[in-house]
Input
Amino acid sequence: MAVRTGARERTGARTRTTRAAVVGALTAAVAATVLATPAAAGPAAAPDPGPRYDATQRALDDLVRQGAPGVIAQVRTGDRVWNGVSGVADRTTGEPRTANERFRIASITKTFVAAVLLDQEADGLLSLDDTVEKWLPGVVRGNGNDGRAITVRQLLNHSSGLREYMSDPEYRRKFFTKEYLKSRYETWAPLRTVGVGLAHRPDFAPGDRHAYSNTGYVLAGMIIEKVSGNSYAREVRERVLKPLGLRHTTLPGDRVTIPGPHPRMYSFLSEDPGATEVHDVTEQNASQAFGDGDIISTTGDVNRFLRGLLTGGLLPPRQLAAMKAMLPNSGPVGGYEGYGLGLYRYRTSCGTTVYGHSGGAAGGGSEAVATEDGRRSVTVNVNADWAWSEHIVDSVFCGGRGKGER
Output
């Protein structure tokens, strides 16, 4: 399964194809390592003994040979954890990637945001069928956009019809070209970001179909704040991070750095398929993402989040069922079969149904999926925005398992 919509947000078509041509430019040798370590947070997970995910490690190594600087993956099966690592965290120093690194999870943030709003609903603070106008009066107006006709649910399942703000030509010039080397330090208020999308007419009437739009999730973050009277970051911490013990997950606000051990992030900063100049874009102001993609985390914490979510440890049954109620993917990009509330679903090549999300920031791509019962999950991160392999996630569920593994 290739990187889906969320992981293309900053990079457009560049993530659709791995560029073997840049192998020479990325001179770091493959540093393939299999690590068996406890989970990053919460109750200790037992090390997973032996090379039980050979096919997954080969997929990681192949991606680096094809041009990615480095890639990490963690597989969690029950209380057992396997970490696979390949390539480098820093192309200049050759420092290898390591399993405990933090990275920008980008649109995987949406699953956290949806969980917070569903938890607020469970507490009786709002209804998913409330209109956007009820909580953000007058914000969504003009150019045919009308918050009185859009519900919170439609923001979360991308059926609002609101224009994707990242499709705006001026926005793309600032954030998808070399101009980003300067604009990445700008602080953006959520209203400014939303305004970019609202400057355009909606793509369709609310509820007509599913079509991915980051604009809706910026509004969702704003609604979290209006409902609670707290910051969006505090609500995520109190309702998700603390209950699940996600000690290595942060909401950076307007900071430009990544705390703790982390890889450098690399981008061509060009939508030209022939571009070869690679830029270090590790520093970037997180306010430019807000509720649509600002969270920083680790493979271990993201796996723990998915497990807690899907096993019912985070939300009541009614809210979890609503989260998994899927609309068919009718958008031009994706790869997932259906999209619920901050959660997508698809089938692997061997027929296993998985739930999760992908995410892409300038300089990186990630994906996290799990079986419906939460027993097995995998989170992957690549520190480049042009390279991905559908075989990494697929191999976890369909190939390379050890004797007796199911």
